[in-house]
Amino acid sequence: MNERRSPRRLKRERALVTSAAGGLGRIVCRRLHRSFDVIGVDEDAFPDRPKDVEHHQVDLRRKAATQLLRKKRPDVVVHISGIHGPPHRGSTSKYVEATAQLLKLVEQVRARKLVLLSSATLYGPSATSASFMTEEAPLLGASTIPDLSDDISLDMMVQSFFWKSPETETVILRPVHVVGPHLDNLASRYLRAHRVPRLLGFDPMIQLVHEDDVVEAIERALRPGVHGVFNVVGQSQAPLSRLLEARGSSAIPVPGPLLKAALDRAFSWRLSSIDSGELAFLRYSCLVDGRRARSELGFIPHRSLKETLEDLH
Fold first, then answer.
1. What is the pLDDT of residue 6?
2. Is the pLDDT score of 9 beyond 60?
3. Hey, which end of the chain has fewer CB within 10 Å, N or C?
């Protein structure tokens, strides 16, 4: 039997947020609970959540979890992909399995909206691309960073759902490197460090977007009538050297082969979760075009690049 709603609850939609206990998930839940009855799910606990946010510490791959959520019948679903977790998040294949179960749930409860928070890094850095990539660009990141293959599969799975289930408005958001004071991801950690390695002879252009602006994009994506794929970018971009200078970081130029060997050794000894393939982002640019989000979502980032860097703490 489906859970009945009180007259008060009938006035508000239910929003299901996955990875709710993660850095971005917590921010999303705290923002959405103003307008929705929020249900968070995560394998981790969420002890400091707002009192009116319902949280379930479950694994979405389990049948019991999907049965529970089927009773809750969410109206909108915000699915935060594993790429936005901390560097030690482990295998991403579980996120692909969890997404398959989630899509079945969305179809069964006939949710009106599904928003996937994917990533613009899936396009992959390129030595030959001199232009800003639009949403139609192929997702080629796995060719240089094999660890992105599962994240690309997840994005493409939701793209297929977009065409298979038109009754649900599906939105895929692909933000550039997301940074902020509440995040423990690779980009935020790198920019917070006082001494950081840089690849000798390379200075790629980097795009950043503040965590609050990403949540703003999610809110806009939940509005009725919105569907499709959108790149989410900050106000501007800058060479990596300028970002590090603005942060007051001391950059240590290291030859590529030497840094790769060090990362490979640390990875094999389980001293680091960073794959050496990710050095490609310190070598080449991965610039994307955010005009579609501006024109169709009305999304305009509020935080300047300077403010974004200053807010890293």
1. 46
2. no
3. N
Query: What range does the domain containing 67 cover?
Result: 9-184+207-234+286-302
Task: Confirm whether 64 is domain-assigned.
Answer: yes
Two tokens, residue 29:
């839940």
What type of residue sits at position 263?
Answer: L
How many domains, the chain? 1
Assign residue 74 the CATH number of its domain: 3.40.50.720
**Do 232 and 216 touch, CB atoms closer than 8 A?**
no
Measure the CA–CA gap between 232 and 209, rounded to whole angstroms: 8
% of the chain at pLDDT higher than 70:
91
Return the bridge partners of 76, or none: 15, 113
Q: What is the pTM of this model?
A: 0.93
pLDDT tens track for 218-276: 999 999 999 999 999 999 999 999 999 999 999 999 998 898 888 777 666 665 556 66
Upper half-sphere CA count for residue 116 (Cβ side, 13 Å): 36
Sheet of strand 237-239: strand arrangement: 177-179, 205-210, 237-239
